[in-house]
Amino acid sequence: MIVWINGTHGAGKTTTAALVQRLLPDSRVFDAEKVGETLMDITPGLPWTGNFQHWPPWRPLVVETARHVLDYTGGTLVMPMTVLVEEYWREIGAGLARHGIPVRHFVLHADRETLRGRIAGDTVLGPDSPFRLSHLEPYAEAARTWLHREAEVVDTTHLTPAEAALRIAEAVKG
What we know:
By secondary structure, the chain is of the alpha/beta class. Helix content is 49%, strand content 14%. The longest helix has 16 residues, at 58-73. The mean pLDDT is 96.
């Protein structure tokens, strides 16, 4: 099984995923961003797109990496990864389904003011990360048009990462 934790950049996916992993027996965290980083290391570089998710190899490589890890280890993969393009989510989901891998898709959501406050206090990329701020509107658009219909939304506006992780783990176990 895959527990996919989606949401905008700065929503707390990585922190929450590590906490979910501790709550789910026989689980591991697999950050699909590492697949993108591998593609970014190819030299000479792949054609510039501004986002590794736009490279056609990224999505099937995520599927195949997850499949092979699960075939090797069994258990559950907890995957913190922002996917805001519906076509990409459908491609990944279809690929996992072809391999018979069930997916529980969660979205960490917070209101815009809360997200801006978290980004302002970000200690990973630094305060007011232009990268993270630039994804607020694409996230809002995805949430309005498809993302919240396709996932179990966990409103983290007033939750700690530990509380969000507990909700996700309880939903998966339940």
